[in-house]
Amino acid sequence: MTAPLHEARPAGVGRALPDTQQGMRRRNLARVLHAVSAEGSLSRAAVASRIGLTRAAVSTLVDELIRWGLLEELGPERPGRVGRPGSALAVSGRGPAGIGAEIGVDHLAVCAVDLRGAVRARAVHRGANRGRAPEPVIAELTTLVGQVVAEAEREELWPAGLAVAVPGLVARDSHTVVRAPNLEWRDTDLGALLPGDWPLTVDNEANFGALAELWLGAGTPREFLHVSAEIGIGAAIVVDGQLLRGTRGFAGELGHVPVRPDGPSCACGGRGCLEQYAGQEAVLRAAGLQPREDLVGLLAEHAEKGEEGVRAALRDAGTALGIALTGAVNLLDPETVVLGGALAGLSPWLLPSLEAELTGRTAGPACPVAVSPLGPEGPLLGAAHSVVRAVLDDPASVTKRA
Amino acid sequence: MTAPLHEARPAGVGRALPDTQQGMRRRNLARVLHAVSAEGSLSRAAVASRIGLTRAAVSTLVDELIRWGLLEELGPERPGRVGRPGSALAVSGRGPAGIGAEIGVDHLAVCAVDLRGAVRARAVHRGANRGRAPEPVIAELTTLVGQVVAEAEREELWPAGLAVAVPGLVARDSHTVVRAPNLEWRDTDLGALLPGDWPLTVDNEANFGALAELWLGAGTPREFLHVSAEIGIGAAIVVDGQLLRGTRGFAGELGHVPVRPDGPSCACGGRGCLEQYAGQEAVLRAAGLQPREDLVGLLAEHAEKGEEGVRAALRDAGTALGIALTGAVNLLDPETVVLGGALAGLSPWLLPSLEAELTGRTAGPACPVAVSPLGPEGPLLGAAHSVVRAVLDDPASVTKRA
DNA sequence: CTAATTTGTAAACGGCCATGACGAAATAGT
DNA sequence: ACTATTTCGTCATGGCCGTTTACAAATTAG
Q: Which intervals of the chain are annotated as region Disordered (chains A, B) (predicted)?
């Protein structure tokens, strides 16, 4: 059977560039870089056979990537087979770096990641940001960025872009934070506040967390649901290796999926939304605890001590999550569900009831549920890596800037 | 801000082909054909400016497409502006044709669609197929296909492929019907039964229906949810102009989204699934009617007469649908929801309660709900058009076959 | 030590789009 | 009516890019 090729507007490098010889070259540069990056170390001949070009063509492409400082020659490979050994190539550890930043409710963090994916510099600033005006927060963040950039530059890296993860809604393809309830920011344009001549990306921390899971997670599928609870409960949906954002960018609002249609009414206008059962406020209330800054730690502490009320509250939250996820899994048929963010820390008490609900409501084999190994680092790493991926996906872009 | 190019494995023509000059040519041929097809009639210069190539390049591409019989020269355009008028090009009405077939519970249908999208031949065979063995049904279908192909050939069309819509689950990228409850077929390989040297595609009728909506619907968005009820209740999810199939191909199982978690238990193992409230059986039972062949007609008749029991049953089904769709809309943020298949015919009685539920449970503007204008024709047209799209997406493929 | 194998590179080749120029066919202005 | 202008389609030229072919280098097998 012939593979169906239905598609009208292909995404990514494949077609965003005009289909001319220059575009072709540019895409092939990306393919070479991707191949080496994926394998860690590869000879020219290996790259050629992997991406379907000839050795001669790959040679010229590699030359160019080396000239741009994106690829390095490691020297002859250890010969295991007959024939002349290849010369190992690796992605450079001294080229461009992705700068990731995170604006948290109680901290700011910045890190630099090189093309190999290694974190090469980082800086953290603790301190509650809830209710503070954007300007001083961004000023602090700017100095942190400056520190990290300086440290990266000492290691012969240069910043290729800045990506900022924020705990709130970000307008699609913009730098504007539409609403960040936990910071109490509204319609804040970070582009105007952040200095820098680099490309800037601003996105929701949940999205970056999911992307981190996609890029860094162990044995990561290309199709999964990444659930996190920071502000409300959000699910980032990854389909075919890409984030599903929705028409208005509101996709993934798992928190307002109806769990019990006649349940308590919700701020969204609905009734019995998941957030009424598994949201932070709801769980705290059910557990009979007073809120403080580190809610996850609070809950985990008490649950650890074996307090039945707290455990029951978390169990019930898990059940509600399981019901909502059953719906999501039936709709999307993902390979796995990953619990990230605050949910990762509470998973010991959430998972049993969650999985019971999920398997009980599924005919065939239930969708496996995993806990994110990245934990709270996800968003920051995802942000930094998003910049790195941009370079990997279009290496020519690094020469297009002064 | 630079557009993020994140993507690792791009889909479609864009990268499936090796990135060589031949591939480039092939993609550009597709772009020219797409442009003309989208606009109906276009001059070479207009195509050039639209797809970003030069007039000279487009000229040679057009020449090739004309030589292959995919494009036609209509003659000089009516000049409205200064300058020499262009020579209008149109997609040929005498080239390849897509043959679509539908295996329904009470009918077989076949049609031929030309590259312009016009239905040029069709044949229908009424008769209940429930419980019949696959072989005689396929034999009947084969003769219908023969008739349609003969008729198409009289109009100087030649079949470029056959796509079959079946009311059941089809294994991904295969010709095997895993399960078709209403036909009572299991693990039936249509590839072995259907003759022909053409490319064959077999898929679920709901999927083809959604694709028809995507390709033929009025003002069709690239991101929507197509809900249909044939066997069970299914939703085809279209994201960025492509069908979201899920890891195992089971995506879109709206029928088993939990609506009332403590409701009646369902064959799927869950409780309170949508199907328990809006499935055909459930609605019939609630309406107090005896099943017969044409269930939609039956329900519509009685509802039309104003029978309160029937209307109430449909109202309740609409409510349940609304609850399930609220969850789906929150997750996916589609541009619209389209009711197709049996639901389209019953929409007058379903819509009010469905929309009430959907708007009541949404904070911002609710996702609009539309009724498919294609109605029962959807799957058949979608199947035929899928073949046409395959040609449009890779015109060079028509010369690659003897 | 020779034959076989594999790697990387160089030169010639061919395909494809861009560039620039030209004739053709329409409109706009005088 | 006639010329200038604009736009269209095509042709010849040139540059870019991957392929093909050939060859030297480096390793293993015998």
A: 1-21
**pLDDT tens track for A3-59:** 332 233 333 333 346 688 888 999 999 999 999 999 999 999 999 999 999 999 999
Q: Which nucleotide is nearest to A22 (CA to C1')?
A: D16
User: Helices A21-39 & A55-67, crossing angle to 10 degrees?
Assistant: 80
User: Residues of A with CB below 8 A from B246's CB?
Assistant: 223, 332-334
pLDDT of residue A18: 66
**Alpha carbon distance A166, B316 (integer Å):** 42
Confidence (pLDDT) at B18: 67
Give the C-alpha separation, A209 to A223, whole Å: 15
Q: How far is B305 from chain A (nearest CA, A)?
A: 31
Amino acid sitting at position B354: L
Q: From residue A133, give the alpha-carbon distance in Å to each of A100, A136, A294.
A: 22, 6, 21
**Dihedral angle sign, alpha carbons of residues A373, A377, A383, A386:** negative
**Coil, strand or helix at A320:** helix
Distance to chain A for B180, nearest Cα, Å: 17
Separation in Å: C27 C1' and B43 CA: 18
More confident residue, B197 or B6: B197
Q: B107-114 and A158-166: which strand pairing? A: unpaired
What is the reported pLDDT for A195? 77
- Residue-wise pLDDT for B363-397, tens only, equals 888 899 999 999 889 999 999 999 999 999 999 99
pLDDT value for B17: 61
- The stretches in chain A having pLDDT less than 50 are 1-16, 402
Q: Nearest nt to B27, CA vs C1'?
A: C16
The protein residue nearest C25 (Cα–C1') is B84
Q: What is the largest CA-CA distance in chain A?
A: 72
Report strand pairing: B158-166 vs B169-170: unpaired
* Nearest by Cα to B338 from B245, B248, B216, B256: B216
* Pairing of β B169-170 and β B96-103: unpaired
Domains of chain A, each with CATH number or no CATH: 13-91 (1.10.10.10), 96-210+379-399 (3.30.420.40), 218-373 (3.30.420.40)
Residue nearest to nucleotide C9 (CA to C1'): A56
- Residue A4 is classified by DSSP as P
Q: Is the CB of A61 under 7 A from strand D?
A: yes
Interatomic distance B216 CA / C25 C1' (Å): 37
- Of the candidates B96, B185, B199, which has an alpha carbon nearest to the alpha carbon of residue B135? B185
Q: For strand C, which residues in window 63-82 of chain A come within 7 Å by CB?
A: 81-82
pLDDT in tens, B175-194: 999 989 889 999 999 988 88
Q: How far is the CA of B373 from the C1' of C19 (A)?
A: 49
Burial code of A357-379, b = ≥16 C-beta within 10 A, e = fewer?
Answer: bbbebbeeebbebbbbebebbbb
Instruction: Report which of A252, A331, A362, A363 is spatially closest to residue B226, judged by C-alpha positions.
Output: A331
**How much is the pLDDT for B97?**
97
- Residue B205 predicted with pLDDT over 60: yes
Residue type, B231: I
Each residue's pLDDT tens digit, A136-152: 999 999 999 999 999 99
Q: Do B334 and A221 touch (CB under 8 A)?
A: no
pLDDT tier at B169, thresholds 50, 70, 90: confident
Q: To the nearest whole angstrom, how far is the Cα of A270 from the nearest Cα of chain B?
A: 4
